Amino acid sequence: MRQGVCCQCGMSASIRSFYLLNGKMYCEPCVWKASRDAQTKGEPSEYVSLTDNSVCVRCGASSDATDFQLVGNQPLCSPCSQLIQDWPYPTWLKAGLAFVLILLVVALINGRKYFHAGRSLYVGERLVDEGHYEQALPYLEETVRVAPESDKAVLLAGRAALMTGRVDIADKVLHGHSGGHFEDPGDDFRTVEALWEKANRAFAKADEASKLGQQGGHDADAARLMHEAAAMYPQAANLAIAAEMYDEGAAFERKDYDAFLSIAQKQWRLFPGPETAGVVASALACKYAITGDEQYKKQSEEMLLEAERGSQQPEQKKRFEEYAERIRYRLASRAIIDKPEYDKKFRSQKSQ
Amino acid sequence: MFFIPGPVIAALTFPGVIIHEFGHLFFCKLFKLKVYDVCFFRFGNPAGYVVHETTDNFTQFWFVSMGPFFANTILCVLFCTAAFLPVWVLKVEDLLAYFFYWLGISIGMHAFPSTGDLSNLWSMAPERAKHGNMLAIVSVPLIGLLYILNFGRILWADLGYGIGVGILGPLAIFRALARA
After folding, report:
1. Are both A234 and A308 inside the same structural domain?
2. How many domains does chain A have?
3. B32 vs A contacts (CB less than 8 Å)
4. Are residues A267 and A292 in the same domain?
């Protein structure tokens, strides 16, 4: 450490505590006085503090032999000079940054399972907004599988399901969400609630129609109720189908076999299967019974064969055997009797 | 409005401070500027700093000052994007996702350049822009906006920025993906 001596008072101390004024070295109290005197005399009065170039300004290390190298007018020892030229990243920082990158990878991997669900949600939402409910439903169901507690996903899925007549799916997703409770009953909730209530009223009416239909002889009333249910909730295609099936029964009841055959054939075209084939066979047998036209008999037998071929499951086979027996009787006897009457006449000892 | 001491906020969001200072140091080293002192985190104001050599080169100064803004913003968007869906949209109770969301917002909150850096940039940018410096021309509006927003720090504009980026960034990404 360099020492200095005040030219005024002779005080000796570290050179860093001295000042330079007009080429002379002063201690702090003396430089104030000397500066004022110089100002009075009209001489330069500005002074600067002296630096000790043998002391590092950064770490305070001193060199007795030589001055330190000046970096930006500041004396710095060799290690500090090296340090500021190329400040190293601390090991903990490097480890920390590596850890952050690992966390980022983990975050993205952890988020991956949600990305798919989230994308499905946004796609589903867009499709719902565009009115493409049928297309939206699979996307929204996928989201609900991952996030059954998401209000948004559940309400959108419920709405898409109800708008496509899928009350079973709507019931599953809506009641799978906190037992049907929603925290914020906003517009989306109210829309779904209104649809849900409408669907329930329609199905209650359909249930009533079904009970009437089961009683026998009330197919006309059952058809009326079922048509009302279908009109109330047109999104449920099965209600309209059920209504037509009751129309068939009503036509049979009022002995309008042309209407019976026409509806049965329409159902067969729309939903070809053993059950609809059996109904066509029944209607054709009625037409044969009334007209005696062998053509109807032949067609009826063909449709009965079609129904038999399609009845693969045990339940279907059992049903086929039941109605095939009655249709064959109708074809053989040309007598048109309904099931209760047939049962009473021929099956009273077996069942019912 | 309740008062939360700065050091408490800094402690709760320390990863953002460290990454911000790392950004300064990285660009100083990249442009071979002398670094006199570095503090990555402390309980004080500022919570971290990098004392470095000044430079007349606007591009170098821009990157040293604004680098952390972009690095912190990008990291905030990435972490928050990974956690956005389970936390905000799907309402899935995933603790890991909540942890990543905190990390993202902590980083985003410390994206703002310091007042000193913004003042220097604001004093240099218009002049450089007049002389046709493209970076200055392009960044003048951003610097101006940040300069104004910086005054809002007293009203937690920096926290607002972190949360805003952490919500709007992922939302924009997922909306764009849904349209794709």
Report:
1. no
2. 4
3. 85
4. yes
Q: Are residues A214 and A281 in the same domain?
A: no
CA distances from A34 to A5, A16, A188 (A): 15, 18, 85
Distance from CA of A184 to the nearest CA of B (A): 13
Identify whether residues A50 and A12 lie together within a single domain: yes
A328: in domain:
yes
Locate all alpha helices (DSSP H) within B94-156, ordered by sequence: 95-109, 115-130, 134-151
Residue A255, C-beta contacts closer than 8 angstroms, at least 6 positions apart: A336
In a domain, A306, yes or no: yes
Is the Cβ–Cβ distance between A52 and A1 less than 8 Å?
yes
Q: Which residues of B touch A58 (CB under 8 A)?
A: 36
Q: Are residues A136 and A175 in the same domain?
A: yes
Of the residues A184, A212, A241, which one is the last residue of a structural domain?
Answer: A184
Provide the residue range defining the domain that includes A241.
Answer: 203-252
Kindly give the confidence (pLDDT) of every residue in chain A, 352 residues in length, as a single tens digit, with 9 standing for 90 and above.
678 899 999 998 888 889 989 889 999 999 999 999 999 988 888 998 887 888 888 888 887 778 888 877 778 888 898 888 889 999 999 999 999 999 999 999 998 889 889 889 989 999 999 999 999 999 999 999 988 888 889 999 999 999 999 989 999 998 888 777 777 678 888 899 999 999 999 999 999 998 887 787 788 888 899 999 999 999 888 888 888 888 888 899 889 999 999 999 998 998 899 999 999 999 999 999 999 999 999 999 999 999 999 999 999 999 999 999 999 999 999 999 988 889 888 887 554 4
Q: Are residues A331 and A277 part of one domain?
A: yes
* Whether residue B3 has pLDDT greater than 70: no
ipTM of the predicted assembly exceeds 0.95? no
Q: Do B28 and A87 touch (CB under 8 A)?
A: yes
Report the C-alpha gap between A233 and B72 in whole angstroms: 54
Whether B30 and chain A come into contact, CB under 8 Å, resolves to no
**Partners of residue B49 in chain A, C-beta under 8 Å:** none
Report yes or no on A105 lying in a domain: no
Looking up residue A176, the CATH number of its domain turns out to be 1.25.40.10
Tokens read off for A156: 């959108």
Q: pTM of the prediction?
A: 0.67
Tokens 């940040």, residue located: B146
Q: Considering CB atoms only, which of A107, A117, A149 is closest to B83?
A: A107
List the single residue in B15, B25, B177 with the smallest CB-CB distance to A87.
B25
> In B, which residues are within 8 Å of A87 by CB distance?
25, 28-29, 35, 38
User: Are residues A231 and A160 both part of a single domain?
Assistant: no
In a domain, A331, yes or no: yes
Of B34, B96, B177, which has the smallest distance from its Cβ to A119's Cβ? B177
Instruction: For residues A116 and B62, give the distance between their C-alpha atoms in angstroms, rounded to a whole number.
Output: 39
**Residue ending a domain, choose from A23, A42, A62:** A62
CA distance A295 to chain B (A): 59
Question: Would you list the DSSP string of A290-340?
Answer: HH--HHHHHHHHHHHHHHHHH--SHHHHHHHHHHHHHHHHHHHH-----HH
Tens digits of per-residue pLDDT, A304-320?
A: 999 999 999 999 999 99
In the predicted structure, residue B1 carries a pLDDT above the cut 50: no
